[in-house]
Amino acid sequence: MNQNSLQARTQARVLFVDMDSFFARCEQQVNYWLRGRPVGVCVYTGQFGCVISLSKEAKARGLKAGMRLNDAIKVCPDLVPVESNPARYREFHKKIIGVLKEYCQDVVPKSIDEAIINLTNYEHIHPDPVVVARRIKQDILSRVGDFLTCSVGIAPNAFLAKLGSGLGKKPPYDGLLVIDPQNIDSILRPLKLGDLPGIGSNMAYRLERGGIHTPLEMRYAPAHRLKAIFKSIEGMYWHYRLNFIETNIASHDYKGMQAQRQISAEKRQSMAYIEQLFMTLCLTLEKRMVRHKFYCKAIAFTARYKDENRWDDAFTITTPVQDAVSLMRMIRLRMESLKNSPTPPLF
């Protein structure tokens, strides 16, 4: 399905639904006694397990996703570690998507806890997207789980709707924010480049070197200038996203997917950073698989070292998976089995 267009849209009719602290909330949904307590969902609950989702109570204590469990416990001694349950999260995800599809069929899951609802062609059925957003929030609470809250962004395209869903989690928006041609400049003005979804520290640095210091400057930069700064057509896509042109509702045919990242010598010394990167790569693959309705049947991973050695491995799996938690767990178990093997394989 491809709903992209080079025509700028001015009406805010694309909704981006982002579930709040999804894995942690799912655990609090099924276990009443976890509600109101700082909860950390981990790939495994060993001493050095990676925390992949935190309840709002844990976030309020200063914890961040990607922390190792021993470090998280130091910051928040009463943290309740819970081992992840991918099957549970998938079931809640299916129920949530079922609710969304009752409003229209143009629903595109972006990950296990995010989805786009494109109401562009449903103006007569749903004249007011804000009313739809409020009903969706209530339907999820009443029909899926009374502890499963979400934030909804509404905008003329999916990227700005996603931005709205993130900003909408903070006061005074109460989980619902509309971005349109009338307010976009005021929304972007206080933001930093890194506040835009998809702009990391390296890309922010590149933009600043190119003379772009804020999202508002980025919005008004000519497409050819952004293309030169990004050194690819991706720069033009950023111009489109910030000017109401749709670039984010599409699917492609893939036989395989990959996610990779190079790590500087300094960052290689930090296990916490490596754990965070491992989680980020798996979440990237999850989003792509969910977006294109794919499941993983084989996994390959590679680590290259500064001395030019490398570690390669690949294996098939019995039950196809689609979520980052399962990917992380299987790769970790594979690595542990190889490490503990009496005759470790040579790569």
CATH homologous superfamily of the domain at 267-339? DNA polymerase, Y-family, little finger domain
CATH class category name of the domain at 267-339: Alpha Beta
Number of helices: 13
Any idea what the shape is? globular
Pfam families: IMS, IMS_C
Enzyme class: transferase
Family: Belongs to the DNA polymerase type-Y family.
Organism: Mucilaginibacter terrae
Give the secondary structure arrangement, pairings included.
Blueprint: E1 14-19, H1 22-30, E2 39-42, E3 51-54, H2 56-60, H3 69-75, E4 80-83, H4 86-100, E5 107-111, E6 114-118, H5 129-144, E7 150-155, H6 158-167, E8 176-178, H7 184-188, H8 201-209, H9 215-220, H10 223-230, H11 234-241, H12 271-292, E9 296-304, E10 310-321, H13 324-339
Parallel strand pairs: 2-4, 7-8
Antiparallel strand pairs: 1-6, 1-7, 2-3, 5-6, 9-10
Helix pairs in contact: 4-5, 10-11, 12-13
